[in-house]
Amino acid sequence: MKTYFLTTLWALLLGFLVLTEAQATHLRAGEITTRRISSTSLTYEVTMTTYHDEIGGKTASDQQDPSYFCFGIGPAVAVPRAERRAINRATTVNIYRATFTYPGPGTYRITCTITNRNENVRNIPNSIQTSFQLETIIVVNAGLGLNSTPVLLNPPLDSARVGQKWCHNPAAFDADGDSLAYRLYVPSGRIGDEQGNCTRRVVAGYSDPTAIGVNRINEAGTGPATLTVDAITGDVCWDAPAEIGQYNIAFIVEEWRDGVKIGEIIRDMQIIVTASPNKRPALVVPADICVEAGTLIQQTIRATDPDNNRVELSAFGGPFNVSPDGQQYNPALIAKDFATFTPTTAQNTPATGTFRWQTNCAHVRAEPYDVVFRVIDLPRGSGQTQLATLESFRIRIYAPQPKNLTARPAADPAGRAIILNWAAYSCGSASLPAETKMAIYRKEGCDQATFDPCSDAGALAAAGYVNVGNVAIGQTSYTDNNNNQGLKRGVQYSYRIVVVLPRPNNGQSVVSEQVCVNLPQQVPLITHVTVDSTFDTRGVITVRWTRPPGINPQDGTGPFQYRLFRATGLTGTNFTQIASINTTLQPTVGDTVYTDRGLNTVANAYRYRIEFYYTDPASGQLQRLDATENASSVRLTATGGVRRIQLTWQANVPWSNDNKQHRVYRSKTGPNGPFNLVAVVPVTTANTYTYTDQGADTYAADGVQPVTMSIDSSYCYRVETVGQYSAPLTTLLLNNYSQGVCAMPIDTTRPCPPQLAIDTLNCASLTPDAFCNQTTFANTLTWQNPSTGDCDRNIVKYRIYYSPCEGQDLTLLDSVNAPLMTYRHENLMSFAGCYEVRAVSRSGRESAPSNRVCKDNCPYLQMPNVFTPNGDGKNDVFQPTRCPRFIETAELTVVNRWGVKVYQSSNLSLDWDGKNSQGKEVPGGLYLYQITVKFIGVNCNAPAQIYKGWVELLRETGAN
């Protein structure tokens, strides 16, 4: 997408910018960048780059030394100006540089506050009294290595014209190859800030520039003016200014690695808007490219001006290693080859420039390089405005392809390993990071897949390859033994290798050509694990296998033996030997089949392995040669659905059951048939072994027997899988049956919710002695099913749900089988609680909840008004009369007639023996009491109740 810029002659700007040099900084823009400079400490170099107007504000620019950095910890530090260089006759770039060592990892906010902004900024009230504050956030973590923030290589000096779209691109470059993202931000600063202030605050009263002016429409006249930033490219565009003047905006460049944001910098910049009739020049750049390291990139850039003005071409971006003022921004990279762009002097229109870059292996990285080209016209006559156009060119560089990959089986036949070799890598380890690896990928089967070096790194995995190992880039061999588990014999393997650079660059090479190899087959192949009958104690599975190829029965190593092992489950590993079969490998002998009986094929799948033994001629003893891959029986599950049965099946076998037609059989008799073939199911990929039976019979050869799926009937199934080993093992089709399994469909309707009732308490009719000394309680529930409604009447049980508190979720308490419709909830600590009942149909569907019923306690508390603590055993204690009921917590406080507290207790007994809290008897007389009591009730959040009263304590005269 083409974007446009405009820059203005500074002499023209002075005509309408009235500034007070004593206060204004004439600061055009700036940002703060960082880089870690020590691998043994958390020491960073922090650089602030600012751009100053040297025509109207040279005095203020001269005085801007030092500046004060806040490093996110500790006080502000004065940092002297390190450099001051001219970009053009009107602008200087000022560099302030400091080092700082952080005490530990963390996220730190680096700021610098400069006292005054320019006067008369249109979208900042009282701008000359408002500070200019820059900010950068970094994540300090040793694990990020010598990380640096991105640098902004395009100077922020672009001006705008009324009614014309204005754009700026910072030409951000991250030397570590981290991903960048962009977003707009409100400039920071506040009125009255002094240098050294570390508190961040956005500008008060800041206005979006698009809100200023009368005719606020975009350049095309199709909508309102907008201010946007492209989150990926970084193009900041104002489409379009409505009035002349000076404006400030800010945007953030975010730095991301592995999906985690590790920093962000803010560029705050001014935009000068003028009016001009000049027409902007046109720019043509090449399409984005993706090349191999070592390629010489040479591209022509063309520019024309409609007014036939002379033009100047320029370029910015990481490949040049040049900062906005024309200096090398990272001298440490001087050993690399950098790009050039010529000429950058004025030319007549049409003009051309040449971009040239000799790439090398050090330039490889996952993120592309962005180059920003710009053309500026040079209008004739004084006081005219220059216009500019900008476009981006993106370059991605990948590493060369590894060459001469070969593969061969290892010499040890029992090792089941493959040895890979390849040529020394063309880039050489010296030109690549030390952590660069050669990654080895493997998959079963060979094909002619091609890989685009410019696509993402997930292409190998998408093609079925698995990373089986990584070695140092200088290594040229690898032995693959499947992590000491051994590779499969007879399977054809495809290998590819690829160079992978370490993070953060994270680039990679072209994928190598494949090499195909297979281990010779020297042991049998299991071909069948098929379920013959389905029972819980007498199930039967038949196992078949082939004779070992490549073994000559007459070579003197016989006799031979097969040993059969079995484990329980699709992925079972508890193998135990179940048979030994001696053989001479004669084809007329039926010694490659075994019938395994007495199994629980209802509950389990079973897994088998065969070990092959030969006779050692020297010792005459049997020696193990090798073992087959494990192979399981087919496991089928059936789940009842609405007027249908959902079937799924799976098997854990060394052959492939994909891309074949599996067969589904149905019976209404039982899990052992007789069965009728009802469907042939095409299976394309793993994990899609499913079939939904709605009663149809789509296979006519054995007679069509459709059924109407009834919720009152059970339907039984078994599945026949069809599979095949990959070439060159065998082309034989392998047919295996699952166990039989039965299921019932369900109806579309649920049961109706019951109507629930609970036995109630009449608190008013209870005597004071009710429930006295009773420690457990019970609630009785009864319910009825509605006689009307469209619902399932086939109820098999009821589920009772309960909570001791109203307003809380109920949990399952118990269930009772139909037709019983009553339940007694016993052994409760109180009556309080809420209940619901739900009916469950024969198909397992649960009704909506019944009405909720709650039952509460009848609390009771009564206190006397006199007691005589004289030790005669009668009325010696002040305590509740009769039986208090359902008290959860209680507190008794007693005060004398003058309000002085004499006793306090939290005992549930609520008793007082006439003594104070120190154990001394109090004198007789009238005392006031307050009882704060919380009763157990269905409202668990109910507040405590307050009981107040008086009691007279009687003693003999003279009592203390």
From TrEMBL:
<dbReference type="InterPro" id="IPR036116">
    <property type="entry name" value="FN3_sf"/>
</dbReference>
<protein>
    <submittedName>
        <fullName>Gliding motility-associated C-terminal domain-containing protein</fullName>
    </submittedName>
</protein>
<dbReference type="InterPro" id="IPR003961">
    <property type="entry name" value="FN3_dom"/>
</dbReference>
<keyword id="KW-0732">Signal</keyword>
<dbReference type="Pfam" id="PF13585">
    <property type="entry name" value="CHU_C"/>
</dbReference>
<dbReference type="InterPro" id="IPR013783">
    <property type="entry name" value="Ig-like_fold"/>
</dbReference>
<dbReference type="InterPro" id="IPR026341">
    <property type="entry name" value="T9SS_type_B"/>
</dbReference>
<feature type="signal peptide">
    <location>
        <begin position="1"/>
        <end position="24"/>
    </location>
</feature>
